[in-house]
Write a structure and sequence with these properties.
With about 120 residues, the protein is mostly beta strands. The protein is built from no helices and eleven strands. The protein starts with a strand and ends with a strand.
Length: about 120
């Protein structure tokens, strides 16, 4: 499966951005897709995940109530709507997928990864 992330950019604190991860190469109905991020000087961390077929979602505590993950069957994409952005959200954001119907916060559980997209939040 191929993953293509897009939508990053520069935004002021309090603003919004929408990231998109296009999933290609196979039918995604049996996949779980997640977003991770890696801030400068920090380890990669889990952001959010969604089970493609069941709509079940999971979020990191740091982004709950600000970020929303969703999937678009028509575009075969998983989007991450990010609102009320903070400077600490600055990071490279990656989408990842695994062929199993459960969410996981561990990056090692995900087999397929897209290239990152940079999000910069200025104060």
């Amino acid at each position: 499966v191929q993953l293509q992330a897009s939508g990053g950019g520069l935004v002021q604190a309090g603003g919004s951005l929408r990231l998109s991860c296009t999933v290609g190469g196979r039918t995604a109905v049996r996949d779980t897709v997640a977003w991770f991020r890696r801030a400068p000087g920090k380890e990669r961390e889990f952001v959010a995940a969604i089970i493609w077929s069941g709509h079940s979602t999971d979020y990191a505590d740091s982004v709950k109530d600000r970020f929303t993950i969703s999937r678009d069957n028509g575009k075969l994409s998983v989007d991450l709507q990010m609102n009320s952005l903070k400077p600490e959200d600055t990071a490279i954001y990656f989408c990842a997928a695994k062929r199993a119907l459960y969410t996981s916060t561990r990056s090692s559980d995900y087999v397929n990864w897209g290239q990152g997209t940079l999000v910069t939040v200025s104060s």
